[in-house]
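hey so i finally got around to running the thing on that chain from the lab meeting. sorry it took forever, my laptop kept dying and i had to restart like 3 times. anyway pasting the input first so we r on the same page abt which one it is
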Amino acid sequence: MGVQATYDDANLLLRLYELRREDKLREARAWFVRNYYAATMDEHAALCPPGSQEDTYFRMVTSYWDMTASLITSGVLNQDLFLESGNELILAWDRVRDVIPEMRAAMSPLVMKNFEQVAQSGIARIEKAQPGGFEKFSARTRAFVNRPRK
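ok and heres what got predicted. didnt touch it at all, straight out
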């Protein structure tokens, strides 16, 4: 375990949880878990056309997790405390990780860098606890996606 979490860390974590309960973000998160999986920018564009509700949902979810991750990477929020209950960030990263290289090439190399950094720490934590555990986690959570089956 790294730096000891503080009372302020706990309060910030609870505030972030409250934000997740906001109706629009909850709706966006539910859509994302059920429907978002893209391996390419073309698949992303088909799922989330610019200006669509789906694009709004995608941006809400990913910006929420990138903002949360930025609090961690900047040292404002204790990473170990967050990762004790932060599996949804890891699930969200797992869904976007394949398309991120194309997004970065098209927009900025900094797109979702904080999100990735914290997710990678969470993945390493899962792997340390159970080698192969992230692969199982990924397979299980990707099975939730509403997409045509081959």
